[in-house]
Design a protein that fits this description.
- By secondary structure, the protein is mostly helical.
- It has 2 domains: 6-180, no CATH class; 186-462, no CATH class.
- 73% of the residues lie in helices and 0% in strands.
- It has 20 helices and no strands.
- It has helices spanning 6-22, 28-41, 48-70, 74-109, 124-140, 149-157, 159-162, 170-179, 184-216, 225-256, 274-280, 283-294, 304-322, 326-352, 355-374, 378-388, 399-407, 409-418, 422-433, 438-462.
- Helix 1 (6-22) runs antiparallel to helix 2 and helix 9 (184-216) packs antiparallel against helix 10.
- The chain starts with 5 loop residues before the first helix and ends in an 11-residue tail after the last helix.
- The relative contact order is 0.10.
């Protein structure tokens, strides 16, 4: 089940909201926990057991860490943390990377070990990181162990951010699990955030995604450079509006139930360096790797050489986290190298350069990164790169490429503007002008939200293309 589906919008969500708000406050976590299990089991009923196992393991380990520390048994507390991390990474590695390792062993040694071909449990990369951070935070003294397994299970299984984040650290949610207060303003704000995310996903990401899918089907040897560039640009917009739209919906749903999650995107395509880009894109993942890998390795405290090493490790792990394929590892290494270059010498020049120069550099660097991300087959990716520079002799432009640009020009303009803060600023300005007519301002805003919801629903009625790109991670 996905958020941008008629089943979710008109059956699941209304039912769970009604049951949740009708129920006494003391059992609302139970409602959320059971409702989240239903949401997860809708697509993968078998793997509910895996998530419950992970929940139980980390709940017990959290209690053990707390007990050992209270007794001054630091070594045993470290052992409990290590045990939790090993079990979690073992589950993630087995289900996500076993076939990748087997296939590479077969290729390297000429063996024929059969692949397991296990389907990837949806959301395992996200909830595994959350449960690992729980025991680590208890050991660090940044969180207290949860003694109610139902409350802890609610944190792990919470359906708004279960499938594709944002990754919510336990310390952020701990107080909200037991002391949150649902308000009309929070609910209304959540509905607004959800509808905006739905529009970004359905009306923008899906529409430009169809353009990318169409270009992918073209013979790359006959593709003019303009078509290839339009295709890569389309993928860049699709993945941004797809994932940021999902994050908006997740944050909005959290608000509806009284939870408050941090933003996961802050207009990353406005960035003027790769360093800045990764402070704005998938913020919760970057924060997780910083807090649990980069800083424990020493961060930037032990000299430039070790800092470069730490960046390399973090970005190799970031790449392979996204998928069990060499292209994802190369994608991580690519951005790691760019970040090292900026750290070593490039950032001062980018800060002194004209704004448009640093912005163009960043966008081009990100686009070439998306090329690695989009093609799991490296030969296909290299072929597409060759087409982008006219390497197959198809030229820069032809009639089909001009038609493709012309028919999608309005959409591309909307996407460019929508990926900046301009719409937000214009809306704030309009609200400021209408501040003396508060009712009119609220009415216009609500009309806009209703229009987005109705148009999105109309799209979904006949839609056959409605993927969430980050579900596979």
């Amino acid at each position: 089940m996905v958020f941008s589906s008629l089943l979710f919008l008109f059956i699941y969500l209304p039912v769970i909201l009604v049951v949740y708000y009708v129920a006494p406050r003391k059992i609302r976590n139970l409602i959320l926990f059971l409702g989240s299990l239903v949401f997860y089991a809708w697509g993968e009923p078998v793997y509910v057991c895996l998530m419950l196992f992970s929940t139980l393991v980390d709940f017990i380990h959290g209690l053990l860490v707390e007990r050992f520390q209270s007794r001054g048994q630091t070594r045993r507390a470290k052992g409990a943390v290590a045990s939790s991390v090993i079990i979690n990474l073992g589950l993630l590695g087995f289900f996500k990377y076993s076939d990748f390792l087997v296939a590479n062993v077969n290729a390297l040694l000429g063996t024929s070990i059969p692949l397991l071909r296990l389907p990837l449990p949806i959301g395992i990369s996200f909830y595994t990181f959350q449960t690992m951070s729980y025991t680590i935070d208890i050991y660090r003294g940044e969180a207290r162990a949860q003694h109610n397994i139902l409350d802890f299970g609610t944190y792990v299984a919470l359906f708004p951010q279960l499938i594709a984040g944002p990754i919510v650290r336990y310390g952020t949610a701990a107080d909200q699990l037991t002391h949150r207060r649902e308000t009309v303003d929070s609910f209304a704000g959540g509905v607004q955030r959800f509808v905006v995310g739905l529009g970004k996903k359905v009306l923008l990401a899906n529409t430009i995604g169809l353009v990318w899918s169409g270009i992918q089907e073209l013979p790359v040897e006959q593709m003019p450079a303009l078509t290839a560039w339009l295709g890569l640009l389309a993928f860049g917009f699709q993945i941004y509006f797809d994932f940021s739209g999902y994050s908006d919906m997740a944050i909005g749903l959290g608000n509806m139930f009284g939870f408050h999650f941090h933003d996961n995107f802050q207009y990353p395509y406005e960035s003027k360096s790769i360093t800045e880009f990764w402070r704005r894109w998938h913020i919760s993942l970057g924060t997780w790797f910083k807090e649990y890998v980069y800083i424990p390795l020493g961060g930037n405290r032990k000299g430039l050489g070790k800092q470069i090493r730490n960046i390399a490790i973090v970005w190799a792990l970031t790449g392979i986290w996204h998928g069990a394929s060499w292209n994802f590892l190369l994608w991580g290494v690519y951005f790691g190298i760019l970040l090292m270059m900026e750290k070593l010498f490039l950032l001062p020049y980018l800060r002194k350069a004209p704004s448009w120069v640093s912005h163009v550099y960043t966008l081009l660097a990100v686009l070439f990164g998306w090329l690695l991300f989009a093609f799991e087959s490296l030969p296909q990716g290299l072929g597409f790169l060759k087409a982008m520079f006219g390497g197959f002799g198809a030229g820069f432009v032809n009639g089909d490429a001009v038609y493709l640009l012309y028919t999608n020009a309005t959409l591309l303009i909307i996407l460019v503007v929508g990926s900046t803060q301009l719409p937000k600023r214009l809306l704030a300005k309009a609200m400021e002008l209408l501040q003396r007519h508060e009712n009119a301002a609220v009415l216009l805003q609500n009309i806009g939200l209703v229009a987005i919801f109705l148009i999105s629903t109309a799209y979904l009625v006949d839609a056959t293309y409605n993927p969430f790109l980050y579900f596979r991670f």
